[in-house]
Design brief:
alpha+beta; 6 helices; 6 strands; binds zinc ion
Length: 186
């Protein structure tokens, strides 16, 4: 079978882990993984799920195919799923063939992020929605930091947290935004 990513190599039988068979491209090193094989590996190893190396300070070199992939089995377009808000990596799913494409190094990356036993949840809408929300919140964070300056923004954040806990929050806020809170003239 021809590689869906580099389209130069051939997929050869190999394994990602013990009990986890896959097909690996002999050119780009990407992996074609059947969901059924993944799920049976997941059920065999679920009790060892904590063995994922979740130390995030080591940088894992992983390839990333940004172009759309065509499923090598069915010829249909595969869908990309972002793995987390901290990583730009996306894994490709063929819903027609029930198979996953992982670029070279992405399996190690998934293990490092503690996601190797959670691949099926990555493909769900709530998980993807959560990532989008985290990304949006990160964008706002950057925007405010840029707008106010780092130090002022930190002060504002601390103050906001404090203000949110006050019973008289609304009155305090009115006091703050009033042009002159000591004048009766509006
Ligand atoms: Zn390839």
């Amino acid at each position: 079978m021809k590689c869906p990513s580099c389209q130069q190599g051939e997929l050869k039988y190999s394994q990602l882990e013990e009990f986890l068979p896959c097909q690996t491209c002999n050119h780009c090193g990407g992996n074609w993984l059947l969901l059924i094989d993944y799920l049976s590996w997941q059920s065999v190893t679920k009790f060892a799920a904590t063995t994922d190396e979740t130390h995030t300070n080591t940088t894992i070199e992983a390839d990333e195919s940004s172009h759309a992939l065509i499923c090598p089995v069915t010829g249909t377009l595969m869908t990309k799923y972002r793995i987390s808000s901290k990583s730009t990596h996306k894994i490709d799913l063929s819903t027609a063939a029930n198979a996953i494409w992982l670029d070279k190094g992405e399996w190690v990356l998934l293990k490092q992020q503690g996601l190797s036993h959670k691949l099926n949840s990555i493909f769900t809408e709530p998980y993807q929605k959560h990532i989008r929300e985290e990304l949006a919140s990160k964008t706002f964070e950057e925007l405010y930091q840029h707008q106010f300056g780092k130090e002022a923004y930190q002060q504002l954040k601390t103050f906001r947290t404090w203000l949110d806990k006050q019973d008289k929050r609304a009155a305090m806020l009115a006091y703050l935004i009033a042009e002159d809170p000591y004048s009766a003239i509006r």
